[in-house]
Amino acid sequence: MNKDIERILVSEKELDEITTRIAGELSRDYEGKRLLLLCILKGSVVFMGDLMKKISIPVEIDFMKVSSYGSGTKSTGSVNIVLDLYRNDLPDIDIVIIEDIIDSGHTLSYLTTYLKNKGARSVRIATVLDKPSRRDPAVNLTPDYTGKVIPDEFVVGYGLDYDEKYRALPYIGVLSPEVYGGR
Ligand code: IMP
Ligand code: MG
Fold first, then answer.
1. What is the 3-state secondary structure (H, E, C) of 13-34?
2. In ligand 1, which atom is closest to the CA atom of 134?
3. Which of 48, 64, 128, 149 could form a cystine bridge with 39, CB 3.0-4.6 A?
C-alpha cells in the first residue's frame, strides 16, 4: 500500500463489484435509448473506462472538464467550465454524467442544469462515491446511481487526486492527514 494512505476505503474487488452493478443497471435502464456517458475530467476517467467496458447496450462517450478544488481539500463553491460539450444532437440524447465523487453537490447541480438548458433529453448522475454529510443544504441533489456512500473523509485513488497525485492507485484510500497538514 502507498505510504501516504492511512487506510483503504474501497478495495479493488469492491470497485469491480460496483462497476459491474452500475453497468448492469444502466444497461437495463437505457435499453432502446441513445445513451451518452459524459465523463467529467479528470477524476472520473478510471470509473468511466471500467464502466463502459461492462455495459451491454450501445453507448457513446464524451467529456467535459470543470474546475474543482485546485490544490486544496475544500470546494470553492464556484464552478467553471474548462472544456465544454460541443454537439448539436442533445435533444436526442440521454446523458448519464459519470462522476468520481459528490461532495457539496455544487459541481453536479450546476452541470445538470447546464445540460438541461442546452437541450439534453434527460440527465442523470452516476457516481463512484457520495459524501451526503457534506452536501450544501441549498443544493437539492441525489445521484441516480451510487457506488458507495462514505463518511466525511478526504479520499484519493481510482482517479481521485490530492494536488494531482494518487490518481493511479487501483483502490480508494483515506489520505493521511499529515500529507496535507492536519484535518
Ligand atoms: P462538489 O462540487 O463539492 O460536489 O465537488 C466535487 C468534486 O470535488 C469532485 O469531482 C472531486 O474532484 C472533488 N472532491 C470532493 N471530495 C473529494 C475527495 O475526498 N477527494 C478528492 N477529490 C474530492
Ligand atoms: Mg479533483
1. HHHHHHHHHHHHHHHHHCCCCC
2. 3
3. 48
Residue to substitute in 63, 98, 103, 114 for testing ligand 1 pocket (most ligand atoms within 8 angstroms of CB): 103
Q: Which protein residue's CA is at the shortest distance from atom 20 of ligand 1?
A: 155
Q: Is the CB of 75 under 6 A from ligand 1?
A: yes
Which class for 36: exposed (0-12), middle (13-18), buried (19 or more C-beta within 10 A)?
buried
103 is catalytic: yes
The CATH number given to whatever domain includes residue 146 is 3.40.50.2020
Range of the domain at 144: 12-150
Model pLDDT for residues 90-111, shown as the tens digit of each residue:
999 999 999 999 999 999 999 9
Count CB atoms within 10 A of the CB of residue 38.
Answer: 24
Q: Please give the average pLDDT of every successive group of 10 residues along the chain, which has 183 residues.
A: 93 98 98 98 98 98 82 64 94 98 94 96 98 92 97 96 96 91 63
Q: Is residue 164 part of a domain?
A: no
In a domain, 2, yes or no: no
Task: Specify the pTM.
Answer: 0.94
Residue 47 in contact with ligand 1 by CB distance below 6 A: no
Joined together, the cell numbers standing for residue 122 give 434527460
Q: What percent of the chain has pLDDT over 90?
A: 87
Any domain includes 33: yes
